Amino acid sequence: MRTLGIIGFGGFGQFMVKHLQPYISVTVHDLTDLSHIAAEKDVTWGTLKETASKDIVILAVPVQFLESVLIDIKDYLIHGALVADVSSVKVKPISLMLKHLPETVDIIGTHPLFGPQSGKNGVKGLNMVICPVRSKKTRAIMHFFSNVLQLNVLERTPETHDKQMAYVQALTHFIGRSINEMDIPDVEQKTPAYQYLLDIKRNLGGDSMDLFLTIELENPYAKKVREEFMDALKNLDDRLENVKR
What we know:
Blueprint: E1 3-7, H1 11-20, E2 25-29, H2 35-40, E3 44-45, H3 48-52, E4 56-59, H4 63-73, E5 82-85, H5 91-100, E6 106-112, E7 127-134, H6 138-148, E8 152-155, H7 158-182, H8 192-205, H9 209-217, H10 222-241
């Protein structure tokens, strides 16, 4: 596997280049002309066809746009190519890849549980979820993640992944987005617990709305968790209002 194409050159696509470029020839593409950023990062900018015609193709686009991208690239993929997504949810993307991609290509679902902010000091030891779908290259990919990038690789089914992410991501990002929109202040009179809230605001507040919508709306288990959280808040508030003073 000598060539890699990354379709989607936003924040995470650019973040990936830094960690993958030392090991493989990388070509990138995006609907927006970001060729100047590609040049700054010394990576090749290609057309959609050129980028999709590589040995490995990584789809780094929001889930909302994934199906149209799959339809656009399916005829460009070479025989035996490996196609992987990096979406924050797994049930829907994997279903779409199986639906639209030819049987002549391998498919793996992945979810790096980190991003440009949490991985700014390096990715060693961070979690990476792998959902094997249809590939003879799964073990080689897991070896690369584990032994070269030194990630902590977790093999999961798409359903198990999304059920856990409904709490790990959907709940966390729901709280983080709320705190960010409240714009809670950084004050001198703060406890370690309050600093945790400020850290959540800093870590999640800069995430794109596309990512937030993917996490909250594309995970089939997220709505139930949000509802449980809102019910718990209301019940707690009701208890406070009913305390006799």
